[in-house]
Amino acid sequence: MSANFSDSHCHLADPRLAPDVEAVVDRAHAAGVARIISVGAVATIETDRRAVAIAERWSGIYAAVGIHPHDAKDCTADRLRELRELAQSRKVVAIGETGLDFHYMHSPVEAQENALRRQLELAHELGKPIVIHCRNAELRVQQIVLEVGFPPQGGVIHCFTGDRAAAAAFLAMNFFISFSGILTFRNAEPLRAIAAQVPEERLLVETDAPYLAPEPYRGRMNEPAMVVATLGQLARIRQVAPAPLADRIAENLERLFALDAAASPSPA
């Protein structure tokens, strides 16, 4: 199998992974995972700072900074200013994850919608793509993105779990669609049917580590090395060889997040 895997979304700064991050990265490299987007966004701004520090330490690791919808009530002017400052790092390649989560409702609807708008505006301002978390809120996410405007650099619906209509709508808006280890779960047949149909040029895979470990790792803490299992499942669903699919997904990741520019040395 190809040694050219990509994890388009994980949380290396999460307290469950950060203390062992060197070993986690080593295992990812040993598994052939060459590109990792490490997302901050969860809890306080310190998570974003750790995500950026990790990205700056390793080649092939990049960061996204933002405010998760669970924490949208903390989307203040100061928090946005700090995100803007962190995003000056060349290794920060996206804003997010932001979005709406109407399942858990850890922040009020109004706060979630405000935070999504502010981060879409920040993506426009900084020329970065947007990373969207969407749960039980597909139509409202679409409406807000259309109101504010789709970022010119693009965006991704991470850990997609919607239906065919939602996938079609997001694709029509020019989003990429990223599939997680949920794709391997026994009860995910409807999701697998959607994954079979997403155009190859809009396809990404992720772990969302430390969450959602794929089969055969269910019950364990997820990490980027396990993206290989999800890629293998996606290849089976689409009836293609894993190696060329991994190569195409790598191209998609590089295009969406402008990784060639992010990997270039900073000007003196």
If you had to describe this structure to a student in words, what would you say it looks like?
The protein is an alpha/beta fold. It has helices at 21-30, 45-57, 77-86, 109-126, 138-148, 164-172, 189-195, 227-238, 242-257, 259-263; strands spanning 5-10, 33-39, 61-65, 92-101, 130-135, 155-157, 176-179, 203-205. It has a single domain, classed as Metal-dependent hydrolases (TIM Barrel). It has ten helices and eight strands. α4 (109-126) packs across α5 (138-148). The relative contact order is 0.16.
Provide a concise account of the structure shown.
The chain has 268 residues and is α/β, with parallel strands linked by helices.
Summarize the topology.
Layout: E1 5-10, H1 21-30, E2 33-39, H2 45-57, E3 61-65, H3 77-86, E4 92-101, H4 109-126, E5 130-135, H5 138-148, E6 155-157, H6 164-172, E7 176-179, H7 189-195, E8 203-205, H8 227-238, H9 242-257, H10 259-263
Parallel strand pairs: 1-2, 2-3, 3-4, 4-5, 5-6, 6-7, 7-8
CATH topology term: TIM Barrel
Helix-strand pattern, N to C? EHEHEHEHEHEHEHEHHH
Radius of gyration: 17 Å
Terminal-residue CA separation? 40 Å
Biggest sheet features? 8 strands, parallel
Which strand order do you get reading across the main beta sheet?
1-2-3-4-5-6-7-8
Q: Provide the CATH top-level class.
A: Alpha Beta
